[in-house]
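Standup notes
- HV: blocked on the assembly model, inputs below
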Amino acid sequence: MAAPMLRRVGLGRLWGFAWVDGGSGHRRGSPNGSTSSRRREQSSVAQQPLHTAQKPRKGGHKWAAVVGLEIHAQISSNSKLFSGSQVSFMAPPNSLVSFFDASLPGTLPVLNRRCVEAAVMTGLALNCHINKKSLFDRKHYFYSDLPAGYQITQQRLPIAANGSLTYGVFMGNKQSRMATKTVRIRQIQLEQDSGKSLHDDLRSQTLIDLNRAGVGLLEVVLEPDLCCGEEAAAVIKELQLILQALGTSQANMAEGQLRVDANISVHHPGEPLGVRTEVKNLNSIRFLAKAIDHEIQRQINELESGGEILNETRSFDCKLGCTVPMRDKEGKQDYRFMPEPNLPPLVLYDSASLPAGTESQQVINIDQIRDALPELPSATRERLVRRYGMLPEHSFTLLNEVGLLQFFQNVMKETRAEPKKVTSWVLNTLLGYLKHHNLAVSESSEKPHL
Amino acid sequence: MSARALWLAFRSGLGGRQAFSTKVNLQGSGRITVEVIEHLERLALVDFGSREAVARLEKAIAFADRLREVDTDGVEPMESVLEDRCLYLRSDNVAEGNCAEELLQNSRQVVEEYFVAPPGNISLPKLGEQESFQHS
């Protein structure tokens, strides 16, 4: 599989990298030791000559970046994954905490049916294979916001695996053409969220609020098929839309309902993968793209000046606009995974294997869930293109802006004007107006009546 | 060949249906090295304060090792002793919580309904510096 070529995105400097389509199936390796033929414009001559490598490199002068994402989405449910305390964003500290969440002795986990359904729905929407039997494990580490000293997760056998997510990327600078790409999904698993820590550096203490401890999370692990910040941003946007359409998560990054960690490494195409770093603390799609691109650049700069990349965890500092090493991470962790002794395997059924005479509340039928899946964003977009004859790019814009699709459909209901005219008006005139005045669709005073 | 060696050969022959791997690798003789002790102390925060404690650990491992004498040829390993039970599914209703006062009573220190914890993780002293590990 060819490593996609690095594309310089929007940082405004003169780099000589050619943009190669990520779908090309061949690898190009330069002959070893061909320093004389190494073209100057491939290195960062634009700024500092420091970036020019001193020693000959085999495998060519182009860099390819490999980005893998791990996404944690908070499940939209009334109660937590293993306990009956409420899931809510704002509440007095420690008021939504049960004895189990506080890890008091003698408490046991009881699995929430809604969370399992949410996981199955998400797995089906992402074309995954749903494992009819999945297992729960304990992942041990010490931190004050994890009262039990371990997190219940699904490491050995998760609920869903081997799926794919198709997303659209705008081509070129004018955003006038779209290409579809696919990223593979390694697995989806159910796990517990931890509590929240508020660091009080003044008094050298940490304040712990366990309201979030035990809330159900869907961890979606993607294969490292991505090559830059723009692709990552498009993937996350599509995933958000899917989760919101399913209702399994509100996926609001600003409120912490969707958290993304990126694993990033760079290498020369044809050579083995480089050391990767993990970047955390990304709380908006914009910062996600920026952080990934900056980290790729940092690694390239580091390697080109003869340094090496440490396998570390870094945080994105939005003020500085770069990644910085995170403190408090002691090398590689040994999580001492073990089966969760208090939970039997989770068994799911389909219509064929459904046992007779069982209480319907106690069984989950995958086929039933599949039949009840709502329309996914890709299907909505296809429907818009078919019905109104609009360009795919327009359908993307309609869905990406919160409330715009609803507005458009309301207008179409009331008007006798041509769909193409309405599309053009909504996307150009209305959207332009909203952007100019920095308004959301819901805030605008425009009504669908024309 | 000892029963243990036979068993290890059997495991490697199976081709790796090893669900978990930890970093703790025991020497063939059953002695626990200083590195292993250090590693365990950091992970589990137990204190193997004395040579006797380590000897006790070695004896405990030898005791458990007798399990390996059982012939498990052709026997499928269990997932868990609960694997034949049904996993009960709870309906998504709010039935617990609202006991902040009770829970906070367990904490030595409390600030405005928050539990108070030390800042981040306190790192253990390094190998050379460690004389005895002070329990707080």
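- HV (later): unblocked. Chain A touches chain B through 60 residues (CB under 8 Å). Residues 64-339 of chain A form one domain.
- Next: hand off to the docking folks.
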